[in-house]
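Entry 14. Structure prediction run on the chain below.
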Amino acid sequence: MVKTGGFANFATGEKKTGAVLLPTHFTIAAQATKAGKQFGNLVRTYAAKSSKVMDENNQALMDVTDAEQAQSASDSFGYSSRFSATGDEHPLFDSDTLNITDEQMDKLEDTLNLAQANGNILHEMAFSMRGDWLVENGLYDPETKQLDQDKLKRAEQHIVKDLFEKGGPQPLGEGPDDVVWFGAVHQDTDHLNMHIWYAKVSPETRPSMLHKNGEPKGVIDFKAKHQAESKFRYELESEATKMQRANVYEAVGNYRGQIKQDSLTKLDQAHKYTPDLQKIYDILPQDLRGRWKVGNTDTLVTNDKSRMAPANRRMNTLIDKLLTYELKDDYQAFKTTAQKMDAMMTETHGQQHQGQAKWSEMQDQRLRKELANGIYRQFNEQFKLGSHQNDDQFHKQANGNFEKAKQKQQPAETPQPKHHKAAPLGKLNKIAKRMTKQSRQEMQQVQRMLQETMAEQSQDVSDESLSRHL
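Output returned:
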């Protein structure tokens, strides 16, 4: 950081690349001892440098109207927050006070030296804040050089416990009094710096907290560090800043919900999408029917590692087509709004690492995944008894594309005649002879019946003729 030669001369009008930075440094006890230094010396060093830590410009900034009212009520506006008015003597702070006393300073020095004698590591973290961010959030007035140091200190008091408990494999301290720490506000650089120093007090004996050589680990988990920074920053942000970010989140969510609902309606009603839906439906793995979905991934898996890959590839093409034509305007508004958050995050966190996805890109991936799952859900419904649609109040039509895209039924198999084992030729001849003999007997029987009938009719005629003559 650049020295300014005074206090509260923070640079403003800079390029907005990072609001709060949190570099970390570790000092090994053995190295400090070898150099003839003691951890406790830090206390007197920073307490004595008034250009770094002076508290006379400490004032809670308020709106102009409130400030004018306070000024008219008292000529000592803001004075009550100064350490000289509270009985405290030094602008250093810890968990118990914003401005420690002489007695507390003596105890702090002794405890830090004890931590060094027990071989522990001294952790140092610096919260570096850009001047413009301080102004935007009502923490610094560049005209009067007033700085709301008390609010900044309280924010650090609220996050140190998370650093101590979550920064390593186990909590740094083995009890509530086994960690010693203090902080100081540095005002003599172009950016406001707030430093905190902390160390374990008792000797470290836990294997998970020691290197193989038996020395305590001087590391801090990146996730815990990031969470502490976020919590610190959020507590200090103004309501206007929080509202601005909340409005972007809400707008992106609204656009996403509308696109999801409109996409299902368009797909169900537009005839040109019937073939696309049918093709996707036909290549879905049938043993997963009723359970089709993208899966637990951020994007649609299109390589052959996933059984859904063939359907996902066609799904990607369909979604691109839908967002390029039917939903072009809403999709463009969705992307533009999400990119506003990219700019806000650059101002807050600085430039992203190479290859790191932007927030807007992650939102686009989320949208596509939810669109795909919404379509798969419509296909799943026909295999679930008593299912009810709940896709943003979407109701598909009885003759719509989703109903048309039914699983193709396999044609019924034509019954094949049963094949019997062929009988021997000799057996067939015997059967034929038997049938011929039976037929001959039946014919002879018919002839005898005819002869008897004719004889009876002839007798009847003779009798009738004789009766006539008589």
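The first strand starts at residue 20 and ends at 21.
Filed with the rest of this week's runs.
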